[in-house]
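User: Here's a protein and a ligand (6-phosphogluconic acid). What would the complex look like?
Assistant: Let me lay out the input and then the predicted complex.
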Amino acid sequence: MQSEAQKVMSKSEIHVLPDPDALAQEAGRRFIASASAAISASGQFNVVLAGGSTPAGLYRLLAQAPCRDKVDWSRTFVYFGDERCVPPDHPDSNYRMARETLLDHVPLPSANIFRMPGELDPVAAAAIYAAVLRQDFRTHGLGRPRFDLILLGMGADGHTASLFPGMPALGERWRLVTATAVPADVHPAVPRITLTLPVLNAGREVLFLGAGANKAEAVRAVLAGPKPAEPLPARRVRPRTGTLTWLLDEAAAAGLG
Ligand code: 6PG
């Protein structure tokens, strides 16, 4: 009889890498493989980029040879998992981080980049982005957005994208995108726009990137702890039919034993 923790771990593929550089290398390999498979299967690669700082190493790797030359960027469509409600050139913008580390350095048509309009009113921005997703995936002949690869990070509090513990956005079951405030201790203390759990759980491949000792307790709680009454947001990412993979460095995996 599997324990709840064993069930979670059995549904998740967990890889522990020595350090953040090795994690970025493994994530880059997987990104390239996912892009190649998606383009072979459907002619396009729809990918969701994660925000925060952890993915920057992966993005820089993808922005240079040899990785850069192994992705067909003309058939790649880039979306965002969440955005801080700041202008796109603001230091806290996830779009700015992705642009500086990746998007400005690869031959990706600007029409293939779907930025969340963080500069707008949060509720309006969420509605606009949801409409973009519906339109794009309708033109792809799909119903609900089904991304080929969703990159996610996790905060030390177990949040992912901008789905925070105890916030209403976590329980959203119908909207594709929603606006949310952030808990008091979260930086930057600005509202967010975020994909919702139904969209994350529709992904074909969901890839968490976790690095640093400050994530170890949340990683343990999400991947090896007993199922609490209110599972942490990252624990609620359980793709219905897609794959779930965690890439962790040794520091973040320290609590897994
Ligand atoms: C954000 C991210 C968020 C991030 C985690 C981890 O907008 O901040 O979407 O979910 O992935 O907070 O952030 P770090 O990678 O900086 O630790």
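Summary: The pocket of 6-phosphogluconic acid is lined by residues 50-54, 81-82, 84, 94, 153-155, 159-162 (CB under 6 Å).
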